Amino acid sequence: ETALFHRLNAKKCAVCGALFTPGSNRAKYCPECAARMKRINAAKRKRKQREKCHALGAEKPL
Of the candidates 18, 38, 41, which has an alpha carbon nearest to the alpha carbon of residue 30? Predict the structure, then answer.
């Protein structure tokens, strides 16, 4: 019975398409892809943050 329950809770990874059991309702990626996507999204976020800083015309960008 528990095997059926866990199989029904499996989700498909948005990147590789592998089935995985999410730890929360918001999980979107399998554990392997989650680490990679976390790094990619952090780089994207910092790039945007730095772009804003330079757009203000600060002499010393943070």
Answer: 18
- Torsion-angle region of residue 13: left (phi > 0), alpha (psi -120 to 50) or beta? beta
Sort 54 into a burial class: Cβ within 10 Å, 0-12 / 13-18 / 19+.
Answer: exposed
Give 28's contacts (C-beta < 8 A, 6+ positions apart): 11, 13, 14
Of 24, 32, 35, 29, the residue nearest 14 (C-alpha):
29
What is the arithmetic mean of pLDDT over 24-49? 95
Report the share of the chain in percent with pLDDT over 70: 73
Give dist(CA 10, CA 51) in Å, integer. Answer: 39
